[in-house]
Amino acid sequence: MRYLAEMTFGEVAAVAKDAVAILPVGAIEAHGPHLPLLTDVIIARGMAASGARALEARGVAHVIVAPPLQLTSAEFAAGFAGTLSLRPETVTAILVDAVHSLHRSGFSRVIVANAHLDPAHIASLHEGVRIARATHGILVTFPDITRKPWALRLTAEFKSGACHAGQFETSIVMAERPDLVREAIRVTLSPNPASLSQAIREGKKTFEQAGGPAAYFGFPQGASAEEGRETLMTLGGILADALDADAPKGEGEEA
After folding, report:
1. Which of 11, 12, 147, 221 could serve as a FRET partner for 200 with CA atoms 20 to 30 Å apart?
2. Nearest in space to 122 (alpha carbons), one of 50, 51, 55, 197
3. What is the pTM of this model?
4. 217 contacts 166 by C-beta, under 8 angstroms
5. Element (DSSP H or E) covering residue 21
6. Pairwise CA distance, residues 133 & 232, whole Å
7. How confident is the model at residue 135 (pLDDT cuts 50, 70, 90)?
8. Rounded CA gap, 103 and 109, in Å?
9. 65 to 47, 58, 201, 212: CA distances (angstroms)
10. What is the widest separation between alpha-carbon atoms in the chain?
11. Helix (H, G, I), strand (E, B) or coil at 113
């Protein structure tokens, strides 16, 4: 695994044709009083690194992790200071342009490692993937972890829908960036079992409307770095399995 931004242009040119690029996607938005605004980006980076290791274990020789896309639609958290939100059509355009740039550099396979679950954002990614596949002839894989079969592989809290800045996400940040977890606050937080996914289905548009006045849902007190590491391994496996499922028929084991 290598990081695109740390490579020279010559190094990229030498391997891109035979490489898989992983594009992490997150957001800058409120994640409770105990996690940084960068939480989704931290998770996406960790997911990408885990996916790279899983692909290398399956024989993929070159896996390159691109810099994360971290400005996107985040209107559910718009009422909280620091949240940065773009229009959905802007998000789609950014994804298409990023994939096009990777393709122009020689990559023919790209995996989107997304950790931000805002419904407008998810819709923008699906549209961007559709356009990129249609216009650039590049294999873009996007395992949407809010949907089956991928969602079924994640934790009970995640599947409940009460998982924004709760045990699921807090555990991953504890594993990846424990220095950014406000531990003295985390251990005081009461459970919030309100299901964000159910609220979305009911037409709610903000964390406040969905029952998250402090921008968290779930059980942050139950988080642990051990769970975070296990979840990252699962997320990495999802990326690798999704790429395998998308591989053109007849492609070798390396795909």
Report:
1. 221
2. 197
3. 0.94
4. yes
5. strand 19-25
6. 27
7. confident
8. 8
9. 10, 17, 34, 33
10. 54
11. strand
Reported as type and span, the H/E element at residue 64 is strand 62-65
Distance separating alpha carbons of residues 29 and 75, to the nearest angstrom = 9
Helix H, strand E, coil C: the string for 222-248 is HCCHHHHHHHHHHHHHHHHHHHHHHCC
**Mean pLDDT estimate for the chain:** 95
Helix (H) or strand (E) holding 186: helix 183-186
pLDDT digits (tens, 9 = 90+) for 18-77: 999 999 999 999 999 999 999 999 999 999 999 999 999 999 999 999 999 999 999 999
Task: State the CB neighbour count (10 A cutoff) for residue 57.
Answer: 11
Helix (H, G, I), strand (E, B) or coil at 138: coil
Q: Is the pLDDT of residue 255 over 80?
A: no
Fold entry, domain 2-245: Rossmann fold (3.40.50)
Which helix H or strand E contains 42, and what residues bound it?
helix 39-57
Which residue in 68, 232, 64, 239 sits closest to 143, CA to CA? 239
User: Are 76 and 207 in contact, with CB atoms under 8 Å apart?
Assistant: yes
